[in-house]
């Protein structure tokens, strides 16, 4: 309940509940302090107002109540620190899992991207050099190094297997960044010149998270005609005598806007932008013909077909619900620094790894189509199609 009031996203990691519990306790203490000191302040304003105390009293308070209250607050803060925060910090920072049983990756931040480096099947990270850094080789990976020949490097895309510890070694090429995955309760600053380890264990796949965050959404959105030029109409509009001015699917032009305003229509429905959403249910017309399939991407033409069938609302979710954000203002392009986390089954993860290997090794290209089919066939997901 408290987690919802605080606006926390669904927890998708094994370490999340302990962090959420500490966050809730801290906010309860903050709540008590706010009302306690706020009430005390108001009481003091009333009790010691000038009208009730025309003559100054230089003795001051003689009781020790304030001292007892301050001691209690200090005790509560000490308890939170020693009994909760310090042990949690120790387990999250110092108690790294065994690398043999974990997915180990390097994350190299830069303005304005996250470069994800996987060691490949041999489990060894290849050497990199600043001299080799280029637009097509952002981390300067030396492909001549035997350990680097099978390494996988992605940009703003992180794929992880579910229910397996993940160890990330974080660094940056330029300024300070802050690596943040809210769904995993992970946030760590990337400091120039330092390689900082962090870890977590995903417990939910992207498909499961998508189900949790799915919401009902209107296909059309109300907008003023003055701003509607060039958009697609989501409704039908006409004159009082029944003459049509604008129909579903038509583009709103300046001349149409003039006609609508002449009839007193200043707000119209236009098609809602849903290119980053996927459908969470099947939708059919009155004849039973399938218009939109569950887990499929939503196009403008599909939305128009739904509107024509009289469907005005659909259940949707983000195509990639878990994002990698930079929580540190790192420059003018900071808003562009966002990556995507896909958590899948172990089999789907291995299929994805084989697919990436096929791009590196032309001899393995024959396995690409098979791996690609496996990814789409097993997950029935549009993640790969969007971020290939």
Task: Report the end-to-end length measured between terminal Cα atoms.
Answer: 38 Å
The CATH superfamily of the largest domain bears the name: Cupredoxins -  blue copper proteins
**Briefly, what CATH class of the largest domain?**
Mainly Beta
**Category from helices, strands and their pairing:** alpha+beta
Number of domains: 3
For the largest beta-sheet, the strand count, sense and barrel status come to: 5 strands, mixed
State mean pLDDT (0 to 100 scale). Answer: 86
**SSE arrangement, N to C:** HHHEEEEEEEEHEEEEHEEEEHEEEHHH
> Beta fraction of the residues?
15-25%
Put simply, the count of helices is 9
Helix content: 25-40%
> Strand order, biggest sheet?
3-2-1-5-8
CATH architecture of the largest domain: Sandwich
What would you call the shape? flat
Tell me what you see in this structure:
With 388 residues, the protein is an alpha+beta fold. The protein folds into three domains: 2-54 and 63-94; 99-209 and 321-387, Immunoglobulin-like; 211-318, Molybdopterin biosynthesis moea protein, domain 2. The protein is built from nine helices and 19 strands. It has a five-stranded mixed β-sheet with strand order 3-2-1-5-8. Helix 2 packs antiparallel against helix 3 (65-94) and helix 7 (346-360) runs antiparallel to helix 8. The two termini are 38 Å apart.
